[in-house]
Amino acid sequence: MRSSLRVSGRATGRFSALTVLVILLVAWSGSPARAALAITAPATASLGSQTIGGGTLSARLGATTVTSTAVIGSWTATVTSTNCTTGAGASYQTIPRDSLAYWSGPDTATTGLLSSVSPGQPTAASAVTLAASRTAFSATTTDLDTSTVLWEPTLTVAIPTNVIVGTYTCTVTHSVA
């Protein structure tokens, strides 16, 4: 998922009010070792805009789906992120990935024979930072027919107080193995 974060300024006396806009582009990848698994996620998502100085942005990213065909056994979907940057990506042009919080939420739909389905973060209270790779979802399939698990994750960005006006971009990637 690639994110663009636009920050614009408006003069108010001697100081500027700064606004931050985050647009996320979703990337996904499947595992070549288990060709019977596939993951899809929305190509883009927008988190909107926020005044710089310590606000947060939060949005649902849209439907993410793992499809399992001819697999008996378990799979795990993971999520990772890069830092969000603008310009040359200097420290004042970077929103670090540990400022991004992710929660999968529960599954919103399933098909096929699944003996277990487990969200990585079932509630907002269990959100995790994307400072490292995280489990987004996991499941166990019990027959060779096609099964799917769909969820709609939420991403929250805590805007640091030291970033400048700009369009910030990062990539959030879901993968499955």
What's the arrangement of secondary structure elements?
Blueprint: E1 2-12, E2 15-29, E3 37-40, E4 44-51, E5 56-60, E6 64-68, E7 73-81, E8 84-85, E9 94-95, E10 100-103, E11 107-111, E12 114-119, E13 128-129, E14 134-141, E15 147-151, E16 154-158, E17 167-176
Parallel strand pairs: 2-17
Antiparallel strand pairs: 1-2, 1-17, 2-4, 3-6, 5-16, 6-15, 7-14, 7-17, 8-9, 10-13, 10-16, 11-15, 12-14
How would you explain this protein's 3D organization?
With 177 residues, the chain is an all-beta fold. It contains no helices and 17 strands. It has strands at 2-12, 15-29, 37-40, 44-51, 56-60, 64-68, 73-81, 84-85, 94-95, 100-103, 107-111, 114-119, 128-129, 134-141, 147-151, 154-158, 167-176. Strands 1, 2, 4, 7, 12, 14 and 17 form a 7-stranded mixed sheet that branches. The two termini are 18 Å apart. The model is unreliable at 1-35 (pLDDT under 50).
Features:
177 residues, seven-stranded mixed beta sheet, 60% strand, mainly beta, four-stranded antiparallel beta sheet
Whole-number mean pLDDT: 82
Encode the helix/strand succession as letters.
Answer: EEEEEEEEEEEEEEEEE
Shape: elongated
Total count of helical runs of at least 4 residues: 0
Please give the number of β-strands.
17
Spatial separation of the terminal alpha carbons: 18 Å
Percentage of residues in strands: over 45%
Structural class: mainly beta
